[in-house]
Write a structure and sequence with these properties.
This protein is mostly helical. 72% of the residues lie in helices and 0% in strands. It is built from 13 helices and no strands. It starts with 11 loop residues before the first helix and ends with a helix.
């Protein structure tokens, strides 16, 4: 793209979709459009993954599910990394953003797995919709992104909807819903750390590291629970399906967070609730 292309004023349609940010470069619009579309695709795949994990958890330990889920996803991303001719272990893997990303991944995955196991899937997914608000606050504070009042209003309306669902202070509040709240903080931290990750790391390499941390997490849970292993053919099929959709979702999410502005892309997380309700 030439510098001349960046001087073209955006159309009224593009301004409508991207609200109050004035873009002076078409590359910004294309990147945000790409990020938004990949975010919607990620939310659709995540919803199917959640449904499969919830079903498998009815007969199988959540620790075993996380360990197998992490192992399967890691192996797929390793193969994809090798296919691109990249090394699996890059020195940048030990950088601060990646280590923080791993910690947030563990917190988010573990707590959300508990949430969808102990509470209705639609309820847990609804609480997770507070992620865009947290991510936008983080993007404004950490990355200096300009967030207009229309975007703030959009995510605040979504956050009010979350509060109506968890009903804090009322008799209908379920303590197990707190797992979804903690997961929301973990996933928001992971997304922000993904944005801060070094560009020398590919999406495939980030996928390897993200799924790897789930293996020791799952094994630690299994050791703590110290329960007999129960593993059926049906559960194996469900976990395998969760791995496939999980890899698709994770890759799409990584592309989305690295392509567009966080304040533009994150609100499209709300589509996850629509998919969850449909399932």
């Amino acid at each position: 793209m030439t510098s001349a292309d960046c001087s073209i004023e955006p159309t009224l349609l593009s301004r409508y979709f991207f609200t109050d940010t004035v873009y002076t470069c078409w590359e910004d619009i294309l990147n945000n459009t790409k990020g938004s579309l990949f975010m919607v695709a990620a939310m659709a795949a995540f919803s199917i993954e959640d449904m499969l994990i919830k079903s498998a958890a009815e007969t199988t330990s959540i620790g075993l599910i996380l360990a197998l889920f992490g192992l399967g996803g890691m192996l797929i991303f390793i193969l994809l990394t090798w296919r691109k001719g990249e090394t699996v272990l890059h020195p940048a893997a030990l950088s601060r953003p990646i280590l923080l990303r791993a910690l947030c991944e563990v917190i988010g995955r573990f707590c959300f797995a508990l949430a969808i196991t102990l509470t209705p899937l639609s309820s847990a997914s609804a609480i997770l919709q507070a992620t865009p608000l947290i991510a936008m606050i983080g993007a404004a504070l950490l990355f200096g992104e300009q967030v207009g009042h229309k975007r703030w209003l959009a995510v605040l309306v979504g956050f009010v909807g979350v509060l109506m669902i968890i009903r804090p202070g009322l008799d209908g509040f379920e303590a197990t819903s707190l797992f979804a709240v903690i997961a929301t903080l973990g996933f928001a931290g992971r997304d922000l750390a993904t944005r801060a990750a070094s560009p020398v790391l590919s999406n495939m390499q980030l996928g390897v590291y993200g799924f790897f941390v789930l293996i020791p997490t799952g094994l630690a849970i299994m050791m703590y629970q110290n329960e007999p292993l129960q593993f059926s053919t049906t559960a194996a099929t469900q976990i395998l399906g969760a791995i496939v959709f999980g890899v698709m979702a994770y890759n799409a999410l990584t592309i989305a967070m690295r392509a567009g502005d966080v304040s533009v892309v994150s609100p499209f997380r709300y589509t996850r609730l629509l998919f969850a309700l449909a399932l």
